Amino acid sequence: MVEINLSFLLRLLADGLLIGFIYALMAMGLTLIFSVLRVVSFAHGEHYMIGGFAAYYLLETFTGLHPLVAILLAGSVTFAIGAVFERIFLRPLAEEKVERPGEYAILVTFGLGFFLQYLTLALIGPHPKKAARYFDLPAFELGPIKATAATLKLGTIPLSATRLTAAVIAVVLMLIMLYLIHHTWLGRGLRAVSQDKQAAAVVGINPLRMSTLAFGMGTMLAGMSGAALVPAFAWVPAVGAPAAVKSYVIIVLGGMGSIPGAMLGGLIIGVVEALGTGLLPDPNRAFAYRDAYGMLIFALVLLLRPRGLFGRQE
Amino acid sequence: MKRVDWRWVLTGGALVLALSAPLLLSGYPYWLHVAIVAYFYAILASSWSLLAGYAGQFSFAHMAFMAIGAYGSGLMGKYWGTTPLTGIVLSTLLAGLVGLVIGVLCLRLKGAYLALFTIAFSEVLRLTLNAELDITGGPNGLDLAPLLNTTSRVPYYYLMLALLLASLGFMYWLAGSRFGLFFRSIREDEEAAAAMGVHIVRYKVAAFVITAMIAGLAGGVEAHYIGLITPNILILGQMSIVIAMAVIGGIESLIGAAIGAILIQFSLELLRELGNWRLVAFGLLLMLTLRFARNGLIYPLIERLVLYQARRAVIEGREQKAKQVGEGA
Predict the structure, then answer these.
(1) What are the strands, taking DSSP E only, across chain B?
(2) Which residues of chain B lie closer than 8 angstroms to A255, CB-CB?
(3) Widest distance between CA atoms in chain A
(4) Shortest Cα distance from B236 to chain A (angstroms)?
(5) Average pLDDT of the residues of chain A
(6) Which of A122, A295, A303 shows the shortest C-beta gap to B123?
(7) A219, A267, B72, B310: which sits with the fewest CB atoms below 10 Å from its CB?
């Protein structure tokens, strides 16, 4: 009896870790936006949703398109939406021309989310779409490890191929982002603006351009997270809200603006959710409350340590 | 001859129109229903604008308080057998109590953190209502007993109208009193307000409690009128509609938000055949209003009218003075 429970728990843990990588990628986008613009985008879930639909429709329309190309294209779509939105609606914020900027930023990004969600609903309708599995696993058997096209079995723990693929994509994208941020001029510019806008401007970095780029890249990461995960879930226009709430939890937990915080926070949330689900006996209820665990953490962090694990003291 | 004060003419005209609407719409019960729902949203939008526009607390939990009022009354009726009236009174108090707790929890949170926390609270409440099938009926919703012993919509119409006018009157009184002044001082600069002796904690929490109770009361009455409440009322999209109403009407004006809500609710119904495109348009309008007309679209009209009256009063005063001086000479 105990043994069964243990393997069940391990299964949940593995699932939680895999999905945690995607959460981390999405939260990384949110934290990138926050560190440069000092804005929390309340439309993050909608970019995630649009990324998923973009990948789905690209693969439907152009049969034979490589899934990775579709993910990149979906990322470009949300990059474009984010950059154009930043240019029109957030530029006055960067130029410090807005009264009570915090309030404006909340409402205008919230408005974008509202607009994008209903636009998708009007264009696509409420019926769920589900993309086919991106990659089949090569079948092999190696001691306790056994793979079929759809699942990889580590002993008794099955890992779904779609989630595994999504996690691998997320890890690769996060590594690319870390490289961009720490080893290129673009990243140096972004970091400079996030630390001190005026000083960055003095040394020849255009803070306005960096804001547009940061917002675009942040929304691009959300879009790619959605594109990577679209085969794993039934995709509907409302799919973004729970995912967005998770990224908010993650960046608050990790510390607003901290990239390592976002990555670690993503994994923590993934695992806590999975374990929390395992602890409730009634499966229906457990599934419904899965999102509530993250929010419990959220409330605790906000009340006990508002700057999060790696946040800067403000 | 005394000049006509257009402010009172317009207010009076609107009141007469609102009071006689059941007569005018007697052949169109559906539009009377739309008006009731529009007043319901007007209460929500104006109380949200008191909390967000006046006190600067960008809470996204307003619909959650409304739902507490609705579900609270429904559940009390189902399990304790309370009458709808007792249920509404008790659940309004309950909404105030939850508002107190949320207000205290949010004391240290500002701006985006507050918004995030209240979104999370609202989502948890929605998930709970959905998950506890046996108690709340889950996604199928909860049936409520009718509040009034009638099949006619007219009494409900007057009830909701009275509720709207009473809450607007109360909120205007509040906004004009020291409370309103302190709310605005907290919004503009919390530290400065505290330094000037404003008891920040007390007024922030008070703003939450008062607006939560107004939302809860409206929710209770609306739910007993409709006879059914589902957790879907709590989706973020619903909150967005209330926010869009307040922003387009004028987030810093209670009456602007209320008129915005009524106009938007009616136009949503009039444009029904456009389906979701209506909401796409409102989302766009929300963003454009924020970007290019921070005071909303309706409030500036009201302000212009008030200014016009004030200017005329000044000119008139001067003319009279000149006349007196002329007569004296």
Answers:
(1) 142-143, 228-229
(2) none
(3) 67
(4) 8
(5) 87
(6) A295
(7) B310
Q: Give the best residue of B116, B136, B240, B274 to mutate against chain A (max A CB count within 10 A).
A: B116
For residues B184 and B53, give the distance between their C-alpha atoms in angstroms, rounded to a whole number.
8
Full domain range(s) for residue B292: 6-328
**Token representation of residue B189:** 């600069």
Tell me if B1 is assigned to some domain: no
List of residues 6+ apart from A267 with CB closer than 8 A: A17, A20, A21, A23, A24
Q: What distance in Å separates residue A53's CA from the closest CA in chain B?
A: 18
State pLDDT tens for residues B285-312.
999 998 888 888 888 888 888 788 788 8
Strand B142-143 with B228-229, pairing: antiparallel
Closest CA to B186 of B203, B208, B169, B206: B203
- Would you tell me how many other CB atoms lie within 10 Å of the CB of residue B43? 28
**Distances from the Cα of B3 to the Cα of B8, B22, B167, B302, angstroms:** 12, 32, 31, 19
CA-based nearest residue to A226, from A243, A245, A214:
A243
Q: Which residues of B touch A35 (CB under 8 A)?
A: none
Q: How far is A280 from chain B (nearest CA, A)?
A: 12
- Nearest Cα residue in chain B from A122: B276
Torsion of CA A182, A26, A163, A249, to 10 degrees: 120
- List beta partners, residue B142: B229
Of A61-65, A119-123, A251-255, which one has max mean pLDDT?
Answer: A119-123
The ipTM (two decimal places) reads 0.85
CB contact under 8 A, A303 and B108: yes
- Residue B105 covered by a domain: yes
CATH assignment of the domain containing B311: 1.10.3470
Number of domain units in chain B: 1
Domain A2-304 has CATH 1.10.3470: yes
For residue A290, pLDDT over 80 is answered with no
Q: What is the pLDDT of residues B32-89, one digit of tens each?
A: 999 999 999 999 999 999 998 888 888 999 999 999 999 999 999 888 988 888 999 9
**B80 within domain boundaries:** yes
Q: What are phi and psi of A159, to 5 degrees?
A: -115, 130
**Is residue B75 in some structural domain?**
yes
Global pTM value: 0.87
Chain B residues 269-328 with CB within 8 Å of chain A = 275-277, 279-280, 282-284, 286-287, 290-291, 294
In chain B, how long is the greatest CA-to-CA distance? Answer: 87
Contact B286 A121 (CB under 8 A): no
| Residue B108, SS3 per DSSP | coil
Residue of chain B with shortest Cα separation from A116: B280
Q: Chain A partners of B112 at a C-beta cutoff of 8 Å? A: 39-40, 102, 105-106
Task: Tell which of A116, A118, A119, A247 to mutate to test the B interface (max B CBs under 10 Å).
Answer: A118
Least Cα separation, residue B288 to chain A (angstroms) = 8
- Nearest CA to A36 among A241, A192, A151? A192
- Tell me, what amino acid is at B152? S
CB B100 within 8 A of CB B221: no
Confidence grade of residue B242 (pLDDT, cut at 50, 70, 90): very high
- CA dist B236 and B311 (Å) reads 43
- The amino acid present at B166, given as its one-letter code, is A
A241-263 pLDDT per residue, tens: 888 888 888 988 888 888 888 88
